[in-house]
Automatic annotation (TrEMBL):
Residues 266-291 are annotated as: Disordered. Residues 15-247, 296-539 form the ABC transporter domain. The lineage of its organism: Bacteria, Bacillati, Actinomycetota, Actinomycetes, Micrococcales. Keywords: ATP-binding, Nucleotide-binding. It comes from Paraoerskovia sediminicola. This is Sugar ABC transporter ATP-binding protein. One of its GO terms (molecular function) is ATP binding. CDD domains: ABC_Carb_Monos_I, ABC_Carb_Monos_II. InterPro entries: AAA+_ATPase, ABC_carbohydrate_import_ATPase, ABC_transporter-like_ATP-bd, ABC_transporter-like_CS, P-loop_NTPase.
């Protein structure tokens, strides 16, 4: 009698959640969530801000305990008491907000918090070399972390997560701070990680990323699983409908761009480093769009870094009232330094900045805000909010003097004003006395928007990557508010690496290249995308 062929044993899921719920007081963040992730799979978790995605990741990573339900790893109960336990068990996480200490070097950050994985300097150097060879992830271990660009800091976060050779890695909106070229590289890295057998949970709202790299998807809405399955069986329309709870109609072009539903941006390959000796083409075209008088003007602006490199090189810019002007470009071409100078956080080496005809070159952020300048920084978590303060305090930063009565802070008036802003800007919060760190990333951004756009008077808004890392609903709110501001005569400047978004939102787009601005390109020109793509390579002819 011939024995039946042996059956291969079933492989236990790398991660299984069964009926997992999590409450915060009366707020239900997760409600009986079931989820399975297999080894070697990229499992995408989708949902709008506040849907419970980050809470789910934090439970798996040991930062939170579930209120009910169970978590298993490889068929065994998994109850990490803290992130160090999770790391020691082969689970790592790249957070939506940076966990690096800015005053330490990259090496010092990488040697911290390894959850029982011991690496000395030599061991770290060997592991960094392995990661660079395997994934092209190169970092400078001697660089001070706080001096790195946003994209470079995110790369350090990814390297940190890969150091201990995890068999499950969680990515919480990891591409929100990356430019298009960096996103493509990241997605390729994720695919290689999964192909090597590691299970990957990827939280993102960019459907183009999901379809490029994902195997399966789970969609959360209001803390519950509302659908999902193999991505080979789901269309983008299916996923959007599950996320927002209604049929997909004609999406606004900016919203479609934010979801990654438009054609990919031509990113070119301009040099990321700028220096005084670098050859840069002369700026093309007039810096002033054909509109009303300029509210914000920058003339002959120069920024020299401490190492002598010239990051902004005799830059001119004018933003008329009632218009939306965009700045595109690969990160590292002077955009971040320009925004810092405009906000008053960085002093220019030369040149002038005027707001409504007033020279504010030497003015700090406070006087500029008093003149009507609202600023939405590119790193909201680091530069725009104070996580330890309440929602109300963050909404009214810089305006507390207006709320004093007989020399004392009028807390009742403060609460009324904060509640009005929360209602007007649809900030989802348990209350204005809740810490702003308890809000989802999208709601934190809406709070920043509420504070900056409610300035009285408001004459100009400088918004750096205002929709970065936001879901469809939050993007809709940001775009609508910026358009309303421009319609009321406010000058709006938007800096972004999302070219499709800029072309859909702005009247004209400049391109940052080696510290200068090329263009502008009118966005109603049918060849605008091709023109901007050429300028991103430095071509001006």
């Amino acid at each position: 009698m011939t024995a039946p062929p042996a059956t291969a044993p079933a492989v236990a899921p790398a991660l299984r959640l069964s009926g997992v719920s999590r409450t915060f007081g009366a707020t239900v963040a997760l409600d009986a969530v079931d989820l399975e992730v297999s080894p070697g799979e990229v499992h995408c978790v989708l949902g709008e801000n506040g849907a419970g995605k980050s809470t789910l990741c934090n439970i798996v990573f040991g930062s939170l305990r579930p209120s009910s339900g169970s978590v298993e790893r490889d068929g065994e109960p998994f109850t990490p008491s803290n992130p160090a336990d999770a790391i020691a068990s082969g689970v790592t996480m790249v957070h939506q907000h940076f966990s690096l200490l800015p005053n330490l070097t990259v090496r010092e950050n990488l040697l911290l918090g390894r959850g029982g994985v011991r690496l000395d300097r030599a061991g770290l150097a060997r592991r960094l070399a392995e990661l660079e060879e395997a994934y092209g992830l190169a970092v400078d271990p001697d660089a001070t972390t706080g001096a790195l660009s946003v994209g470079a800091r995110q790369q350090v976060e990814i390297v940190k997560a890969l150091l201990p050779r995890p068999d499950l890695i969680l990515f919480d909106e990891p591409t929100g701070v990356l430019g298009p070229a960096e996103i493509a590289g990241f997605l390729s890295t994720v695919r290689r990680i999964a192909d090597a057998g590691t299970a990957v949970v990827l939280i993102t709202h960019k459907l183009a990323e999901v379809t490029q790299v994902g195997d399966r998807a789970t969609v959360l809405r209001g803390g519950r699983v509302v659908g999902g399955g193999p991505l080979s069986e789901l269309t983008s329309d299916d996923l959007v409908t599950l996320m927002i709870g209604r049929e997909v109609g004609g999406l606004d072009s900016v919203l479609a761009a934010s979801l990654g539903l438009t054609s990919p941006e031509p990113v070119g390959s301009p040099a990321a480093t700028t220096g005084a000796a670098a050859e840069a083409p002369e700026p093309a075209g007039s810096p002033v769009p054909a509109a009303g008088p300029a509210v914000l003007e920058v003339r002959d602006l120069v920024v020299d870094a401490t190492d002598g490199a010239r990051t902004v090189d005799h830059l001119d810019l004018a933003v008329p009232g009632g218009s939306i002007v965009g700045i595109a470009g690969v990160e590292g071409n002077g955009q971040s330094e320009l925004v810092s100078v405009l906000s008053g956080a960085l002093t220019a080496s030369a040149g002038t900045v005027t707001l409504d005809g007033t020279d504010v070159t030497a003015a700090g952020p406070g006087p500029r805000a008093a003149l009507g300048l609202g600023v939405i920084p590119e790193d909201r978590h680091h530069d725009a909010i104070v996580g330890e303060l309440t929602v109300a305090q963050n909404l009214l930063l810089g305006r507390l003097d207006e709320l004093r009565r007989f020399g004392m802070l009028d807390r009742r008036a403060m609460r009324r004003r904060a509640e009005d802003l929360v209602a007007r800007y649809d900030v989802r919060t348990a209350g204005t006395d809740a810490p702003i760190s308890s809000l989802s990333g999208g709601n934190q951004q809406k709070a920043v928007l509420a504070r900056e756009l409610s300035l009285d008077p408001l004459r100009c808004v400088v918004a750096a990557h205002p929709t970065r890392g936001l879901d469809l609903g939050a993007v809709d709110g940001v775009v609508r508010r910026l358009r309303e501001a421009a319609a009321s005569g406010v000058a709006v400047l938007v800096v972004s690496s999302e070219l499709s978004e800029l072309l859909a939102l702005c009247d004209v787009v400049h391109v940052a290249y080696r510290g200068r601005l090329l263009g502008p390109v009118p966005t109603d020109d049918p060849t605008a995308r091709d023109q901007v793509a050429r300028l991103m390579t430095g071509a001006v002819a």
